[in-house]
Specification:
The protein has about 475 residues and is mainly α. The protein has helices at about 15-25, 30-35, 55-65, 65-70, 90-115, 130-140, 145-160, 165-170, 175-180, 185-195, 210, 235-245, 265-285, 290-300, 305-315, 320-345, 350, 365-385, 385-410, 415-425, 435-450, 455-465. The termini are far apart.
Length: about 475
């Protein structure tokens, strides 16, 4: 049974929080603090009622029933959305990642619950599977249309394209970095926490633990690496810091704005890594980009001779080639789940102390690690550079760039007749009339990144006079 906490959030200025952090100088994180049912934006509404669903199951349900989650069904994962063969979209990918994440969390929960069985807070560890599965559902909500190419299209629009003109007008390096380092993970945190116009405080009002578990890069864009990854925008910095300090995340350095990951981020990342590579291989087989022999070889390489013998015996019973690949894929995913959850438990102390480096899949046993890398190399050369995938990237880049051109011009010159027409298309929740340029630009990105592939294409055609509503 889960017992909710009753902490009421008190408003504390940033300087006081920084001083408190400096005094604590903690050397590791603690599960007792890392797992909390406190809800973002609803800190004062905790009660002592016992619910059938835990707060983390409520997080999961809240996400499933949300409009941004439904829109994932029409957002590209890797391959063009569907023709005669149904491949993964962002929705099916997120659901599968959530299933893998739940298994990872439950495996870890079983081990740690035994390890800490005498601790009064041990009951909290029962919720690791629910927290991880909810975070897996949430992590992709901020991804724009047209897959990862959509992220690059937004970032490069500002760093290389017509958006460069805004740099002088912004006059804030932090804001400019947010734009040129646009990242789906940071955008997901914004979507989940920002109070959009007409909405309630706290955004989705998810638990602190679920929110922290999606932040793969717990620092802002100004501190991002060469890859341009970051976990939150300047506009949500204080929100993240509030969550990080409440959960006792371990500071990384003395800046007060950079933290080590919540340990469950590693499970969310592992679930995503597993599904991304392995399911892309299966989709490529369905689309005949990869041969059956190639995929069988890639998947069988995960196993030793004894396991291969058993698998081959099963394959002799199944005559359908696609079902053979499905069975092999399930064996591979099961192996990777066991490897990653075992590694997590073995490295628990390093994770709590912020000493663990890299992703879990980078440190699993040699055989599955080598096989996984072979899948990644094959996906890079045979899948992500395939003609259909490149066509989506080219089209998506063009569509997003034109939409940014039109709507950014509209928010910067809202009194033009054409601008008024365009801005009337934008739902009221997006603050296109913000008092700051940064706020207006963010509103445009919020609107465009929330579009489905189909809606973005349709709007692009209408703006360019290429299609009209049926008369």
């Amino acid at each position: 049974m889960f017992y909710p906490t009753f902490t009421i959030f008190a408003k504390i200025d940033d300087k006081t929080l920084m001083n408190a952090q400096a005094q604590e100088k903690t050397t590791q994180m603690h599960w007792e603090k890392l797992i909390t049912s406190k809800r973002f934006g609803m800190e004062q509404y905790h009660d002592d009622r016992h619910h059938t669903r835990t707060d983390f199951q409520r997080d999961y349900d809240r996400l499933v029933f949300s409009a941004p989650f439904r829109r994932l069904q029409n957002k590209t994962q890797v391959f063009p959305l569907p023709g005669s063969i149904f491949v993964h979209n962002r929705l099916t990918h997120s659901l599968e990642v959530s299933c893998v994440g739940r298994s990872l969390g439950n495996n870890v929960s079983a081990v740690l619950s035994e390890k800490y069985k005498n601790e009064p807070w041990c009951y909290k560890l029962n919720h690791l599977g629910a927290i991880t599965s909810a975070a897996c559902l949430a992590q992709d909500l901020g991804n724009p249309p047209f897959g990862h190419s959509g992220e690059r299209a937004i970032a490069t629009y500002f760093s290389e394209g017509n958006g460069q003109i805004i740099k002088q007008e912004l006059k804030n390096e932090y804001h400019w970095q947010d734009l040129t380092h646009f990242e789906g993970n940071a955008n997901a945190f914004r979507l989940l926490t920002h109070q959009f116009q007409g909405r309630r405080p706290g955004g989705f009002a998810l638990t602190y633990s679920t929110l922290a578990s999606i932040v793969k890069y717990p620092y802002s864009s100004i501190q991002s690496t060469k890859k341009g990854k970051s976990g939150f925008f300047t506009s949500e910095k204080q929100d993240f810091l509030r969550i990080a300090r409440d959960l006792g995340l371990l500071p990384d350095g003395d800046s007060g704005e950079r933290y080590h990951r919540h340990p469950l981020v590693y499970l969310v990342e592992a679930a995503d890594d597993i599904c991304y590579q392995i399911m892309d291989i299966e989709d490529a087989h369905k689309l005949k980009i990869l041969t059956t022999e190639t995929v069988k070889k890639l998947f069988l390489d995960f196993f030793d001779d004894d396991r291969k013998k058993h698998i081959n015996e099963v394959l002799e019973i199944v005559s359908d080639l696609n079902e053979q690949i499905v069975y092999l894929r399930s064996c591979v995913i099961g192996t990777l789940i066991d490897e990653c959850s075992t590694l997590f438990c073995r490295e628990e102390q390093a994770l709590l102390e912020g000493r663990f480096k890299g992703a879990l899949v980078d440190h699993i046993s040699e055989r599955p690690r080598t096989a996984y890398q072979n899948c990644a190399d094959t996906a890079w050369t045979k899948i992500y550079k395939s003609s259909d995938v490149l066509d989506i990237e080219l089209a998506g880049n063009r569509i997003i760039s034109v939409l940014l051109d039109k709507f950014l011009d509209a928010v910067r010159s809202p009194d033009k007749a054409y601008s008024r027409l365009l801005l009337n298309k934008v739902p009221e929740q997006y603050e296109v009339h913000s008092t700051t340029l940064y706020g207006k630009v963010q509103a445009v990105i919020d609107y465009i990144s929330g579009m489905t592939d189909v809606y973005a294409l349709d709007l692009y055609r209408k703006i360019n006079g290429m299609s009209l509503p049926s008369l």
